[in-house]
Design a protein that fits this description.
With about 160 residues, this protein is an alpha+beta fold. Helix content is about 20%, strand content about 30%. The strands form two sheets. Strands 1, 2, 3, 4, 5, 6, 7, 10 and 11 form a nine-stranded antiparallel β-sheet that branches. The longest helix is centred in the N-terminal third of the chain and has 25 residues. The N and C termini lie far apart (about 60 Å).
């Protein structure tokens, strides 16, 4: 009578290979996620290191290509480097007249910011292992909690 076919070592090796291929693919995707945000390039008008779709926790999206913000109603006026490890840019237009945008590379954290009365107006609760963007409507970066955007995909 028929015996069930033995699953030889070849089958075991094939299964291990396919699971290690999956792990390799995951590693590649992780590496792709933390692509370095190139602040020097951004300050020189090359936004390719942050190209793609960024989204905050309210579902607002900002889309960048290699030349900057892609938008019908919003326009950036060039980013400049800060002395605390970010780049900052004024964005003009839209229904609110515009906002500040801060480019924060992975690994950079922003200390608590306080107002004249010593009240904390900004606390960095963002995921510092990821590149992020901060936006706020005040005249000073991190002068309010604002919104944190994370890269969620390509255009």
């Amino acid at each position: 009578r028929d015996q069930p076919r033995s699953r030889g070592l070849g089958d075991v090796y094939k299964r291990q290979a396919s699971s290690s291929e999956v792990k390799e693919k995951e590693k590649k995707e992780e590496k792709k996620e933390v692509k370095k945000m190139d602040l020097e390039a951004i300050a020189n008008g090359d936004y390719s290191s942050i190209a793609g779709v960024w989204q905050d926790d309210k579902g607002n999206k900002l889309v960048f290509n290699d030349k900057g913000l892609v938008s019908q109603e919003l326009e950036g006026y060039g980013a400049s480097l800060t002395d605390y490890g970010t780049a900052s840019e004024g964005i003009y237009g839209g229904r609110d007249g515009g906002f500040l945008l801060e480019y924060i590379p992975a690994g950079v954290t922003i200390g608590d910011q306080v107002d004249d009365q010593g009240q904390v107006v900004f606390k960095d609760t963002s995921d510092a292992s990821k590149n992020r963007l901060w936006s706020g409507v005040g005249i000073a970066s991190f002068g309010e909690q604002g919104s944190i955007y994370y890269h969620v995909g390509d255009e």
